[in-house]
User: What shape does this take?
Amino acid sequence: MEEHSQEREKLVFLETFGCQMNDNDSERMLGILKGINFARTDDPCSADLILINTCTVRDKAEQKVYSTLGRYKELKKERPGLIIGVGGCVAQQQGEKLLKRAPHLDIVFGPHNVHKLRELLIEADSGRRVVATRLTETIDCDEYGVSPSASGEKAFVSIMRGCNNFCSYCIVPYTRGREVSRQSADIISEIEAAAAAGVKEVTLLGQNVNSYGTSGGGDVSFPELLKLVCRVEGVKRVRFVTSHPKDIGDELIELFGHEKKLCRHLHLPVQSGSDAILARMGRGYTSGEYFSKIEKIKKLYPEMSITTDIIVGFPGETEADFASTMDLLRKVRFDNIFSFMYSPRPNTKAASFEGQLPLDVRTGRLQVLQEEQKQITIERNRETIGKKMEVFVEGPSRGNPDEMMGRTSCNRIVNFALAAGMSAAPGDIMEVFVTDAYANSLRASAGR
Ligand code: SAH
Ligand code: SF4
Ligand code: F3S
Assistant: This one.
């Protein structure tokens, strides 16, 4: 310990792609690095260590990694002492092959090896190129030992890892391994520590949070875990992603009625509105079953915001299949969607399905879908005009530092002006009055 404090502080440049799991893993990397005298820099040219945390969910994401990596080739030539590491899902998928592809790369480490970063750096420092892509069936006792380094009012907490669903298009089960849940006591102590450090909003993370505790570890059900999290003192808001439509049950839906801290937002990826496509995706529900769950939720909680993920151009998707997706979009009237063009991924079943669609068909459908949704999102946002809403204050507004920015319980961004004499600090919850609405945000006023 003494030794480290006398060493020169080193600098790490870290770039993160992909989902919130990767964001969370990056925070854990920074936590480990902080313990061995590294500070973060936003200038790669001054860094002693460059880390890229990667995503391979679609081909575009994977290609971005190679071009990013290429950019650091010259830097390594100029400063041979520089260590470059690639973590995340491309690292897991490519392993050893990445070292061959990029001779300037020192470390390749998959998502189950984040907690080994310190040892990997020692090896790399001694001149060895290392690959750590072991996928483990259980969670190592020290895997979540170092808390994420994130500071501020919001924290993301992984409650499980991996996925057992093997949707036919998806690479995630191959890069993140089998589903394993963390023990509830570990999760709660991580959240208690975060709350003691000032965190007021917690988002629980998992590829399929509804199956928390049902396979590979975890000692309570997901609704029970949520109740425990809501009881942590200092936590004002609780969110979670991602729910799977086939697994979301009545107990969770009812919980929204009892737990005030549970935010009124549900991200429920539907992927397609066509039953034939859903069956070939291996999603385990029909469009009708999905819609009846949504109707039930909306009836109980009219203020609930529902968002989704949609893939267009899945192999064999006909015009009629696509029309069913458009129908579902109009019927549900999602508050927002994340939409993607189907991208064939290595090892997945769908990559070898017949009927792969040409790029122009996939692009065309994506455009049609996004234009329709844009209108729906604006309309849904405009429905909030004239309403009072509680916002979680995040800080000054980006466009106008005299105003504040916050988020509603239903996860909408709100920019608002404070009345004379009022003040607001990040992490405060305050009531605002919505005065206008746009595609990506609301306007409001606080006080009179
Ligand atoms: N576990 C989450 C999300 C995982 S990946 C879930 O089940 O919903 C996030 C989103 O990426 C998916 O919901 C899906 O819409 C999209 N996606 C995954 N694989 C894809 C592929 N091969 N092509 C296009 N989009 C894909
Ligand atoms: Fe991928 Fe399906 Fe698992 Fe989500 S549930 S991570 S889409 S396999
Ligand atoms: Fe990407 Fe891996 Fe997440 S493939 S979406 S970073 S689980």
Notes: The longest strand covers residues 388-396. Residues 137-263 form a domain with the Transcription Regulator spoIIAA fold (CATH 3.30.750.210). The chain has 15 helices and 19 strands. The chain has a mean pLDDT of 94.
